[in-house]
Design a protein that fits this description.
73 residues; alpha+beta; five-stranded mixed β-sheet; 5 strands; 27% strand; MoaD/ThiS family protein; Beta-grasp_dom_sf; Mopterin_synth/thiamin_S_b
Length: 73
């Protein structure tokens, strides 16, 4: 199981899911309409490190953070 947290305005509670890689996790998350609209806009962190490889392998206990775009001043 991996823990997925959704930061900022996404407004979804953390989930624990079974997924072998980020591509499989994206497929699972895209089935939730509240989350799916954010998936193409957000960065993804795996254990607090930004990752870009959709085929990144996931291990039991990994923490995935879905990070929406932000701006500041």
């Amino acid at each position: 199981m991996v823990k997925v947290e959704f930061l900022g305005p996404i407004g979804v509670d953390a989930m624990e899911l079974e997924a072998k890689n980020l591509a499989e996790l994206k497929e699972i998350l895209s089935q939730n309409t509240q989350i799916s609209k954010w998936l193409e806009l957000c960065a993804v962190a795996l254990n607090d490190e930004i990752v870009n490889d959709i085929n990144q392998e996931l291990k039991n206990g990994d923490k995935i953070s879905i990070l929406p775009p932000v701006c500041g001043g």
